[in-house]
Amino acid sequence: EPEVTQTPSHQVTQMGQEVILRCVPISNHLYFYWYRQILGQKVEFLVSFYNNEISEKSEIFDDQFSVERPDGSNFTLKIRSTKLEDSAMYFCASSVTRSANTDTQYFGPGTRLTVL
Amino acid sequence: AQTVTQSQPEMSVQEAETVTLSCTYDTSESDYYLFWYKQPPSRQMILVIRQEAYKQQNATENRFSVNFQKAAKSFSLKISDSQLGDAAMYFCAYRVSQGGSEKLVFGKGTKLTVNP
User: Fold this and answer.
1) Which of these, A106, A112, A98, lies nearest to A48 by C-alpha position?
2) Sorting pLDDT into bands at 50, 70 and 90, what band is A103?
3) pLDDT tens sequence across A36-76
4) Average pLDDT, chain B
């Protein structure tokens, strides 16, 4: 069964550095999402992306964050200047459509980001 | 704002027994969807079951069933004949209906242990 994949599984970076988290959504999916989970807290929505545009973003998704689909397969999340509070598990998800009544968001295994 | 609350951080069950995981939510919407996702250790979240709020009938998927109480804003998951492979984090999630926000709003999760 097709799966969403994410690389790396664990990323360690210094505060102030830029990081790029990579995701390969399921190939026929059209909608892409990033969520994050700070340790001990809830999984939180960051952003959704469709047709090469952000379709929705949360208040967490400020100017330090950006998303891109650089080619036909990858979907990336960039954090320009990491802060300690960006340490979290970042989940990518994809879906065929955005319709809640027929569709499922499929999640990747996550990238654990540690900012030192 | 919509919120999802899972009041049981951890639960345990004996193999072959039944366990119920609790979830409550808060919303002013009348039409929405509720989900239970399962995340096995070091694996991605997968959808277990979905419930449309306009449907009075509780959803079932094999050994998994829900008790949806719309007036009480309660959405519990019952796992019958528990198996070792059911051990995982279980997340309750909410989203508005078609045409609204695409984001999933998650609870904090319940860690289920299945004892042989």
Assistant:
1) A98
2) confident
3) 999 988 999 999 999 899 999 999 999 999 999 988 789 99
4) 92
Chain B: residue whose CA lies nearest to A47: B103
Considering only CA atoms, give the Rg of chain B.
14
Across chain A, the runs of DSSP E, i.e. the strands, are: 5-7, 10-13, 19-24, 31-37, 43-50, 53-57, 65-68, 75-79, 88-95, 106-107, 111-115
Q: What is the dihedral of CA B107, B62, B31, A48, to 10 degrees?
A: 60
Does B34 lie at the interface with A, CB-CB under 8 angstroms?
no
Positive or negative: CA dihedral A98, A96, A65, A16 = positive
Cβ(A43)–Cβ(A91) below 8 Å: yes
pLDDT confidence tier of residue B97, bands split at 50, 70 and 90:
confident
Task: Characterize the bridge pairing of strands A111-115 and A10-13.
Answer: parallel
Q: Give A114's DSSP letter.
A: E
Contacts of B63 (CB under 8 A, 6+ apart): B79, B80, B81, B82, B83
Q: Which of residues 13-72 of A touch B (CB under 8 A)?
A: 31, 33, 35, 41-45, 48, 55-56, 58
Please state, rounded to an integer, the average pLDDT across all residues of chain A.
92
Pick A56's closest partner by Cβ from B4, B43, B102. B102
